[in-house]
Write a structure and sequence with these properties.
GO terms for molecular function: adenylate cyclase activity. Helices cover about 50% and strands about 15% of the residues. It is of the alpha+beta class. Helix 1 packs parallel to helix 6, helix 2 packs across helix 4 (about 85-95) and helix 9 packs antiparallel against helix 10 (about 250-265).
């Protein structure tokens, strides 16, 4: 039977009868895969790319730009598109025609959405459905199990995706509105940190693939949780490395030290090293770019095991916000003056120790500082 808005049917033994393959199916395509596609898309194949572009009222050239930006492969003039594809084209083109988006910005919207959701979809299929579609009875195929599960999960996952997106959009919009001026909305001053697992390449040669995958997943999950809980933003993960950002140096420092401390207590994890820099960064499609990011990466590469290195700008920012003393000598003088005046001495969370200078071909002289917790500073 055909799946529609009224739900689906089942035969006498309670098993769902998947939607039949559309008439436009290529004889070489797997009919079971086509049934699953029809269920997920909620519509039948009706249009070739040319027909879809014409129905949407856009040029074939612009339609191709949008589709490629969304990450869709070229399909020639096969009849593989649905009414939803036409509507999506019409919406993007309508935003351009109304002057709400430039054509270049509309393409960026398509690209950023496509890249983000492609990764999400891959993860859901690889990690989520795989664990739910083991045939419960001999003789059942994985597809027979997958179809009813997808049918049940699809509306719930769709609603959850929209909820999370709205929450993230609200948080991001709030940060932009709080920016000091228009320029800061694009080029912002942030603390940027890299956390890198030491000796990961050697591990890939010794560990089984499944074991290595579990280690990477544990590292990424732990890092993401710590970054989010402390008010930072996880920019991206690169297997053995995570990149995060924070609006202030104190937050970035706390995250870095927590990452090192947490991983050090996990015997299954390699040592960790972290590098942080503070300065102007360019944000684009959820990523961050610029000299500050390059400097943080460089500091990570020279950091000792289970240690955090920061740049001079970051150290100065911690000193300015009184999260760290300018030096231990200065802290001692302040404590003595406070005691003499009968006042409480200042409490600093972090300590900074200047390290050796290095010359970098692309960055000039790099002046790292070793960041640690200060005795009595405690965790915020």
């Amino acid at each position: 039977m055909t799946v529609d808005d009224t739900g689906s049917g089942a035969d006498g033994d309670g098993r769902v009868d998947p939607e039949p393959a559309p008439d436009s199916a290529d004889p070489g395509e797997d009919p079971l895969a086509l049934r699953l596609e029809g269920l997920i898309l909620g519509a039948e194949r009706r249009y070739t790319p040319f027909q879809a572009a014409r129905s949407a009222g856009v040029s074939m050239e612009l339609a191709s730009r949008f589709w490629r930006a969304m990450g869709f492969a070229d399909i020639g003039q096969a009849k593989a598109l649905t009414e939803a594809d036409v509507l999506a084209l019409r919406r993007l083109a309508g935003l351009v025609e109304a002057g709400l988006l430039s054509e270049a910005m509309a393409v960026q919207v398509a690209r950023s959405t496509g890249q983000t959701t492609a990764r999400l979809a891959e993860w859901q299929i690889d990690s989520f459905l795989e664990g739910l579609t083991e045939p419960p009875e001999p003789g059942m195929t994985r597809t027979e199990v997958t179809y009813p599960i997808v049918e049940l999960l699809l509306p719930e996952l769709q609603e959850f995706l929209v909820y999370v997106w709205r929450r993230q959009l609200a948080a991001s919009a709030g940060r932009v509105i709080q920016a000091g001026d228009d320029e800061e909305m694009v080029d912002r001053r942030l603390a940027v940190g890299f956390a890198d697992l030491v000796g990961f390449t050697r591990l890939t040669r010794r560990m089984e693939e499944e074991e290595l995958g579990e280690l990477v997943e544990a590292f990424e999950t732990t890092s993401a949780d710590l970054v989010a809980a402390r008010g930072g933003r996880l920019v991206k993960t690169l297997g053995d490395e995570v990149l995060y950002a924070a609006d202030d140096a104190g937050t970035a420092a706390e995250i870095a030290l927590l990452l090192v401390e947490t991983m050090a207590h996990d015997e299954t994890m390699p040592e960790l090293r972290v590098g942080i820099a503070f300065g102007t960064v360019t944000t684009r499609m959820g990523d961050v770019f610029g000299t500050t990011v390059n400097l943080a990466s460089r500091l990570t590469s020279i950091a000792p095991k289970d240690a955090v290195l920061v740049d001079t700008a970051f150290a100065e920012e911690l000193i300015r916000t009184r999260d760290a003393p300018a030096s231990e000598a200065a802290a001692a003088e302040e404590a003595a003056a406070a005691e003499k005046a009968g006042e409480e001495p200042p409490v600093y969370r972090f300590a900074l120790q200047p390290m050796w200078q290095r010359s970098d071909l692309g960055l000039g002289v790099v002046e790292p500082w070793l960041l640690t917790r200060r005795d009595g500073g405690g965790e915020s």
